Every structure is written in structure tokens, then in C-alpha cells.
Amino acid sequence: MISKSYKFRDESAPRKIEDANAVMPDDWLEDEESLIPDPEAKKPDDWDDSMDGEWEAPKIDNPKCKDRSGCGPWSKPLIDNPNYKGKWKPPRIANPNYKGKWKPRQVENPNYFEPHPFSQLQTITALG
């Protein structure tokens, strides 16, 4: 029998989807990179191209993008998918016959006794 919660369930729906109503801001610089090589950075004196590889200047934030909405390729933001329900899991129901965690029954052992190791010794009357 298929559960009612499983009927008509699309498990292939993605968790996030692109916002269909989103538009690129007017001040977005699509042709500019958001990070550029630092123009003030200099190649270290002890840099060896044959051992260390080709030197690349560290990247800094593009100053042209500072007072803009952004730079670089624009993509629509992702929003939560209202049709996403995740992987189906069967509902858990309480077991009316559950009596708690199982533990073995404890029975009296008729052969059990407390050992007294010094009970077999004779009485000591002197030390020395």
C-alpha cells in the first residue's frame, strides 16, 4: 500500500531555483572583473620562475566596483523552491506493544557465595 504522503510526490525537484522575477541592476558592470591583480605588488627578489613557477600578483577588489551593485558575469539569484519536499521517508508510528529497552531477566543463583580469602587461615598469635 502506498502512503498518502507519497502519492504525487516529485523527488526530482531541486531545493533551490533561479528567481524568475530577478533583473540585472542598471549599475552592474558586466565587463569588469570583481577581482583584479594588485598594481602595487612587485615580484619578490628571491622568486625563481623555474622553481616557483610564473609569478602572479595577488588579487584585490576592483575599485570600479566599490560603489556599484557588482561586477563580472551576472546570474539570477537562487530562491527556495516551493515544490521541493525532499526525499520521502515513511512516517514513524508508535508501537503499542513496545515495553522499553530489552534487558535479560535476573534470576537468583543458588550456588553464589561471597568468597572470604582469609577464612581458611589459622589464627595468628604472634608476629616476629
Automatic annotation (TrEMBL):
What are the GO cellular component annotations? Answer: endoplasmic reticulum membrane
Q: What is an annotated GO biological process for this record, any one?
A: ERAD pathway
Membrane topology per the entry is: Single-pass type I membrane protein
Biased amino acid composition, Acidic residues: 46-55
Using the UniProt annotation, give all residue ranges assigned to the region (Disordered): 1-101
InterPro entries found in the cross-reference section:
Calret/calnex, Calret/calnex_CS, Calreticulin/calnexin_P_dom_sf
Keywords of this entry: Chaperone, Endoplasmic reticulum, Membrane, Transmembrane, Transmembrane helix
Which top-level group of life is the source organism from? Answer: Eukaryota
Q: What is this protein called?
A: Calreticulin
Origin organism of this chain?
Gongylonema pulchrum
